[in-house]
Amino acid sequence: MSVTVHTPVKFYRMFIVVAFIAISVAALIWRAFDLHILDHAFLQGQGDARYLRKVPIATHRGMITDRNGEPLAVSTPVNSVWIYPKEFLTAQSQWPKLAKILKIRVSKITKLVMQRKTRNFVYLQRHISPDISQKVLALGLPGVSLQREYRRYYPAGEVAAHVIGFTDVDDAGQEGLELAYNEWLKGTPGLKRVLKDRLGRVIKHVELIEQPKPGKDLILSIDRRLQYLTYRELKKAVLKHKAKSGSAVILDVKTGEVLAMVNQPSYNPNNRRNLKSKNFRNRAVTDIYEPGSTIKPFTIAAALESGKYRPTSVIDTTPGTLRVGTNLIRDTRNYGVLDLKHIIQKSSNVGASKIALSLPASRITGMHHRVGFGESSQSGFPGEVTGLVNNISDKQKIERATLSYGYGLSVTTLQLARAYAVIANKGKRLPVKFTRVDNVEPGKAVIAENTSRQLISMMESVVTEEGTGSLAKIPGYRVAGKTGTVKKITMGGYSDKKYLAIFAGMVPASNPRMVMVVTVDEPAGGVYYGGEVAAPVFSKVMAGALRILDVAPDAIKTDVKYAYAPSDVITTGMVGR
User: Alpha-carbon distance 269 to 166, whole Å?
Assistant: First the structure.
């Protein structure tokens, strides 16, 4: 029988193996203890750092409403699709399905991803509808996520587009009052920390870092009812007369508020695809023109305030023309001897010119400056232009003459409305406001109250069968106003084929509440006079506005006649032939 003897060498070898295993096990136990107990907080932080993200919290812009609280611009929640290119590249075979849902080309997705594949966040499509959002999520593509944003919606559409303006895809104001009041309307986004999975999906909201602050609401002076009414009638007139464009403004006489402002052509701010940028501008505040005969009441105002004329003063306009140097000024016919009222009623260029030539040039230009021509209306509307009033000398006779009937200066529709509001407001000038006025300002007196009252009476005669603005009449109400038919300047001088038709008026004449100016640019079809094209728009809009605002009728039969006094005839020696 043999006996196996364990040698010391074998024993040591086994001891080493066992010791190695024991040490390894102890090391693993220590490592596990270190990871789970001692370094847990550090490692958890490191892990979270790879999936914790700071995410902005979208907030909405303030609402824009009309003076009665009716919404004109609101923000609605929408989703935007964004991708994490590194993960998104792993699902390239599914891109056609996503492209079909989003109605974009696969080539566009490919180009976008390849150009930005090193980034962690890339927008694929902004502001998608809820149903499309659900279809995108249903695909379950890696690296595709949705982000909540807000999109601006304009309930009035193209009716108020030029006043309200619009925002861009990032919800920043780009035009109109959206731009002017951008700082007031825009909100302050919040910030939160979230935990995302490897596909970029939020799986846990960790903490709120900063609370979002929505924008402040803006109450406008606009009355949406009057805005719709004005838009409808102006558009009908522009289409009927095949005109190039048109503008209309209604001001509250007592406050300077813009109650309505429309332009043609317009645009839909809710769908700006394939639209021309030239349609974005608010022509009522950006486009200037020579006001023509609508300036004559201010020529008469300068005459009355000079002390040289009274309402009963008369001018001999015979034979219906006036030679000033080498230039010939004409009336449509020979009106003979006219008092100041009938110079306005018949819109006599000769009569207005003789008055201007009998006064210092500063009297005429000074009046223009006082009522706000050549300067900002203080409305704060983006892109508003000031127009131009040339300072002429007494030696510039033809310039003085033409200035008296509206050539040689440039105004906007808003400026012209503001100037007429001065007459309507007992000679007091107010700044123009696009926001609702709760505390009425006293205004600055720039024309004597008695002068403004006389001018209103004279302008009432325009809206009669004997005047040039009979189509501006409103049953049951007294109307005061003035027509204007302006030859437009072309490359070769003043055109005999292109005109601007204007009507400026106020109602009710006994105590004016509203002023309205209507301009129609380049009416075609043979009808182009302001009394035929623009005056009917005034009549229809103001008839509706007076009913909407519940203004009592003031029609009282009066027939004020001024007696001609031979001693009042002005003999300037400028009688034309």
Answer: 6
